[in-house]
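Might you be able to check the backbone structure tokens below? Thank you kindly.
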Amino acid sequence: MMPAHETYDVIVIGAGAGGMTAAAVAAAEGLRVLIIEKTALVGGTTAWSGGMVWIPANAKMGDAGLSDSITDAVQYLSSTVPEPFNAGLRAAFLARGPEAVAYLEANTEVRLQPVKAYPDYYPERLGARPGGRVLEPVAFDGTRLGANFARLRAPLPEFTLFGGMMVNRLDIPHLRRVGKSLRSTMRAARLVFDYALQRLRSPRGTTLHLGNALAARLYASLLARQVEILFSADVEDLSMQGDRVSGVIIRHGSRDRSIAARRGVVLATGGFSHDAILRKRFFPAAAGLVSATNTSGTGDGLRLATAIGAALNTDATSPAYWVPASLFRRADGSRGVFPHTVTDRAKPGVIAVNAAGRRFVNEALSYHEFVLAMLRDGNGEPDRPFYLICDRQFLWSYGLGRIKPFTRNIRRYVSSGELIEAPDIPQLAAKIGIKPPALAATVADYNADAKDGRDPEFGRGSTIYQRHLGDAAHKPNPCVAPIVAAPFFAVRIHPADLGTAIGMKVDAQARVLREDGAPIAGLYACGNDMASIMNGNYPGPGITLGPALTFGYIAGRHLAEAV
């Protein structure tokens, strides 16, 4: 082994939400911290995400006049995550999640606010809450990062306007009412004016929202504490002193370097969404190879840890968290993956159909449940086609996939094959390889009840979560409307993952465990490198980032207390 020529208290591998949280907390506790990031940017998939953080019984709920309790959260999780394994980790999460939020706000640049109206995904279950358990990052001014703003991973361009303007959740309704409401029109004009000023000095908008704001706030916290970040470096091995992890061996440029860690190493490399071998080993065949995550998540942390005897937790109801996604090519030739999370599926006037032209799911269910239905319907067949079907009125009002509402010129989407158009339903069916009578019958059956706002087949719009994602202005059902205004459109959707649920076994201190259950001294994991405490279930928005921040915090605090 090469002799160590650099020494830190803590080394964190990966600069996503979990890794940056662990680093920020360790640094706030006075430790010297190094982050090793394989790409040239910080933020990981977090920077692309909605930035939602699920923390039940957080103090901000009380401040907003909302009630919750750990008892109710336990009751809710007992039905939505019924498996007994990882129960201790869920208890640690519930106990320490609010503590993590309070610590981060007191000691870092992280600022979160409650989303008062964002229901848990199964609102009919005992212990569920209609809002407040979800926290979102407060908007952040990217200019505060100075020259380091260029190191922050940009949001997906499909989720911005005018080539780089981010829009927060509350401004979306204003944009939809431009020209209809003076207040909304003025608000939109102000947003565009501010953005224009920002573009005079920056290649993109600097008012950051959603996951980009969370990543920026964590990055600002690292800069404020002088945390060093080594970019574009690969960790090749973990160094050992006896049974203890004592550092890492990295490849940076053309040479290897050995870096020592006095207290320990934190693995936060983002899971294995983009590793074809591990996907084949753990994912169902029907899942295919599409991922909505950042391409840097190739299982690095899992390989490093298992090489020294770490145990993987494969007891998961689902090996990943799912989202239906459409594929396209950007102008620069790169492949785009658009996750259909909340923008279109639950709105009134769209249905999802399978290869036989039949509906197979309540379109307004959570994205995770939606894809589970795709996988069941696919019977294990890879690349089985599924489509979202809508009409002209829906496309104009709500958009479809990356096609935004009020798009006047859709020719480029049609000519590329991303959006399929036809003057009637039978011809649309023929274009997508479905028997025309089958799709025509499906649409006719749906329309017969949809004109009255009903969906007797699947009960769409029957819960507050589904209605929350619909269009509140559409009556009587915010999720249901007939498909009647020619021309008609289809977009193909694929099962895609939002992150892996299988990962390393850890204890309540985020220490990685061996097969015999003993912790590996000096080795910690958080984020998607750590096995999901939800076991592949998806109880609510932010159930990946909530545990990532919580166990990143736990790891940072435990490292600070280590002797």
About this structure: The chain has two domains: 1-152+209-319+501-563, 320-497.
